[in-house]
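Weekend entry, working from home. Most of the wet-lab plans are on hold until the incubator is repaired, so I used the time to fold the two sequences that have been sitting in the queue since the last round of cloning. Logging both here for the record. First:
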Amino acid sequence: MEEKHWADVIAEDLLKLREDHRIATGITPSGPIHIGNLREMLTADAIRRAIIDKGGKAEIVYVADTFDPLRRRYPFLPKEYEEYVGMPLSLIPDPEDCHDNYAEHFLQPFLESLEILEIPVVVKKADEMYRNGEYEEVTKISLQQRDNIARILEEVTGRKIESDWYPFMPLCKNCKRLTTTKIVSFDDKRISYVCSCGDEGEVSYREGKLVWRVDWPARWRILGITCEPFGKDHASAGGSYDTGKRLAREIFGIEPPYPVPYEWINLKGVGAMSSSKGVVVPVREFIEIVPPEIVRYMIIRVKPKKHIDFDPANLLELVDEFEDGLKNGDRAVQLSMISGVVYSEVPFRHLIVVGQIAKWDLNKVLEIIERTGYRVDEVTLRDVERRLKYAKAWLEKFASERLKFEIAEKVDASLFSEEELEFLKRFANELSEDMSAEEIHNKVYEVANTLGLKPAKAFQAIYKAILGKTYGPRAGYFIKTLGVNWFKERVKEILS
């Protein structure tokens, strides 16, 4: 019996609890939001789709942590951003001066990406939630329950909490920092603070932020969250989910959401992606290069607790797997598909080769596709026109140099030895238009053996004749795609 897809297993668990669900996701827009961050979003969306497929109701709430303080000046920021460390991202200027603030600069391209990837979300910006009073009640509870919260944190983490610690960081009215203030006292309406900048003053319950370990379970209560995917760092023993569970039940009077911890996506040769370290492939850039359904599939096909090794140069194997899954009704493919997208029989690999032969001219591409045995109908036209753009973009940005080629205008006979020229002459004479790619490929070995030429030398001669270099796509398939008569003419030119 085939194993159920992980998203269906989670959906079934959730539907045993209730029929309507709010799935939370949250990312701090402190730098370019990258492919690694997408794991959280796509894990949530696979669960959402699976719940709906089973007759339940589900929506994703995306909390943009726009009120988090800037922790340090990241390598991609100018030196003057040192002065903004400790300030909320929503109060820091956009480094490129094209959005209202720092947080929006990194958030907007990501939200556009979610639309393209068909991940519908209810967007909640943390700075607006605090300012609008959505956190007011839970902030009051947190300050009143300060001692109990400190006890729970100590019990779960094993770390001592300082006697002057509070779970809320007032926003200094002078320096606009969250990380440099301390609470002196509070009543039902105001909070008194001192700041290391020298300022003393009062703020309302809307002017500041709960510390992360308290903010997270408070958010579950505010938004009615029933399920949340989160990175493995939060899932470790004594981590923020462990403290969050206790705080949810004992302080905020709710059940914690169903947890879905996930592993990191590692960028090949570099390691786990990180906005702050600049180790990223930005999502907005990536979905201009790779079809959105393939981006979805890359993550949805793997169980959340397994890490993903991501190598943009090895896209073709992933696309092959997706295309096979599409024919076989694979569940991961179903959960990855984008509305309005149609697939023809033409493989992405074929478009990579044909596109280069035709110099990316759509009409020429369609001619070659038809000549190589594919039916060109309305579906093929729509599919090829869409995916050809991705094939070209991926080839230019990520593909190995060995996949790139250009048909040589003219090839000089001096590139070849006498035995190579004899091979080309015999080989071309024995080819006919009605031969399959496999028959052409086998003919290379047959003619080479007859002449006592090593097959490797024979293939090199073919590639030199077409490209002027010693390697290229699989020879039989390549000649069939170019056209047997075209190849015969090329050999005739070389021999003349």
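Second, folded right after the first finished:
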Amino acid sequence: MNNAFNRVFRPCRLCFLAIPLVSYSGVAASAEGAKRQLEEVIVTATKRSESLRDIPASIAHFDGSTLEEQGKLNLADYLQETPGVVVNNAAPGIMRISIRGIGVDNSPDATIPSAVGILIGDTSFTDPYIGNITPDLSAFDLASVEVLKGPQGTVFGGAALSGAVRYVLEAPHTEGFELKAFTQFSDVEHGGEAFTSGVAANIPLYEDKLALRLGLVSREYPGLYDNRRSGENDVNDGGGDQVRAILRWLPTDKLDIKLTYLEQDYSVDDGVFIADNREERSLDDFLLKQPNSHEFSLTSLELRYDFDRFSIMSLSSLTTKDRHSFADISATFFSPPPGAPEATAIFSTSSHSSEAISQELRFQSTGDWWVDWIAGVYSYDYEMYFDIYINTVAQDRATGGLGDITSLLPIGIPSLTRESSLLYAFNDATATEEAVFFDFTKTLWGSLHLSVGARYYETVVKGGYDGVGVLARAANNGQKVDIFKEIVENGVSPRYSIKYDVAENLSVYAQAAKGFRFGGIQTIPANEADGVPETYKSDKLWNYELGLRSAWLDNTFQFDAAIFKIDYKDPQIQQKTQTSNLAFKNNVGSAESTGYEVSLRWLTPIDGLAITFDGGEVDSHTSEAFVDSTGNTIAAGTQMPGAAESQFSATASYFNDIFDVNYNVYLSYSYIGKNFGDLAQTEPVNDFATLNGGISLSVDSWSFRPQLSINVTNIRDETAPIGGGSRDLPTGEVQSIYIFNAPRTINARLSIEF
């Protein structure tokens, strides 16, 4: 532990000696003219509006306006600066997140559902059956982002095994009309250029009863990867739009109705996001372009009615996701020689769509009760369809298959094409969760806070899989695949906590919480020789946490710390069959994770200078040995994927004004330690530091309040793989593949607000 401690805090001491190497995130002083203090942060992560410092749990909070000012466009840009959180961001919508080392496959193409829940408000976007699109909302007109560390099973059910990332949208208000807009130019070193623009308006419609908030963001994504075979650079440039509309109606003082619609899409003509070497973002394996597209939407209706002593809240949500992809997988079957014709290529095209309907009815105390309480019922219905078609270009053309191979959908494939292809398969599945939950908090003697909560749930997953073609028959003793299974599970996810206020600005807490993730049906034929089971069950974990929160120097200095231990049972892992190299899921062994996290916020005696530091360490490893599908023994003590041994982030910002011009200068330094993308530990990833900085100028006295920000990320242009894996080549060799962090990027942003 001493060596680990030194790895984290020796560089941190250097950061504090050189104040410019540390920065601000979420630090602000009180209103002008008032006493300088750290600002109180209110969150709704527990489905109550509470001060973050009153919650006995680890929560990171990012203010939307601060993210805008720093030019943050990607979720990964700020999550990677959060200790205990590891992000593998391959492409827009293709992201794997692990929290506190819980994740068994951090590769972006993993089909295992994420262990980390992604929520917009209280609506989950985490698919319970298969990995899918990860929403990556623009920070523009976003109220905040909350990162909840540890399982959230009591509050959010099977959507958040190891934690959750929660977007909080800016709500409409009736106080007056607002209009704001921005445009941002991004110039990427060794890559392309891109523009992102947006406009948002708050529109009162009727007195103080009705208001509408609209937002539109149009975004370009710069290309980062080169195709050495074709000689094209920055091939993966793409774009997409995001639309938000929220209508709020306050017919009485007691009733609040909010209707939300959100939609986001993305498309790219050549979605390459991997490299075959560690030195540069390039490869030469692809004979074909790889168009990809996806979109998702949210429609929700939220009603809240306040009685004298309690409130009732109803949330009805509909979410949809659609993804279409085309991939050149030739290198998996043969090594394309120089000048190989397009007709020799082997491709895969897939379509993935899902729809989920959720309903939550929640009751919550608001008046004078002997105990604060929340209770509710929850229902979730999910449908998913996935198909995949693998074939050679020549065979596809000869049998009249897809015709134009750049088509994204394998619509109308003739039977001959299906049977003669390498693989044609589809999967149809449904998943449901029914649950009741409660959470009680009792305060004794004004300083001791006891909480207990629990969620009883039942999940049902039904799946059908049909497959024909060479690979399907090879995995099923020469027969076509036609299976249908059902798995039913139930359980309880409890949460216990105790918090003691030692003094006015000093408290300690302890918490124990349980989480789970859906089990499911296999998406390839069961095969005893390959160790492929028909179904896999849910995995579960317990998180035990001790924490401290403190404020000093008249609330200008805050120091928080937490230590945790996680017991992880029956982890779901992705493996590949020996005979046909098809991916499947299985429960294997167990794991444990231990670590600590520290955080400080300091408004220094130098007026306008704020300093923050966040650091931590995670030791996440298997706790029992097992043999994987390839016959390799994974020893006890093997580091879990996505578990960075150490992380820290330090930031300093200076705020002041001159001649009515406000300026804010910041510099930040962050480090993420070495980890692996899979349990086989094929390739080490991460282990790099990032230096970011910027300046923002604004004029509040002008009617349109202009703001100009110049930000530079990865100033030193450090290049390191953030993800990777391997693929088996026909020669018998194993080829390593890599996904890299973003190179140095300059962002220039201009915004106005009326």
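Plan for Monday: verify the second prediction. Residues 2-17 form the longest helix (16 residues).
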